[in-house]
Amino acid sequence: MLDIDGVALTPADRELLREPAVGGVILFTRNYESPEQIADLVAEIRALRTPPLLIAVDHEGGRVQRFREGFSAIPAMRHLGLEYDHDPDTALGLARQAGWLIASELRAASIDICFAPCVDLDWGVSEVIGDRAFHKRPEAVGDLAAAFSRGLRSAGMAAVAKHFPGHGAVAADSHLQLPVDRREYGDILDDMRPYEKLINNSHIAAVMLAHVVYREIDDMPAGFSKLWIERELRSRLGFGGAAFCDDLSMKATSAYGSMRRRAKRALEAGCDMVLVCNDRRCAEQAVQALNDYSNPLSLVRLARLHGTGHALRETLRASELWQQANAALARWTERPQLELDA
Question: What dotted CATH number matches 73-333?
Answer without folding.
Answer: 3.20.20.300
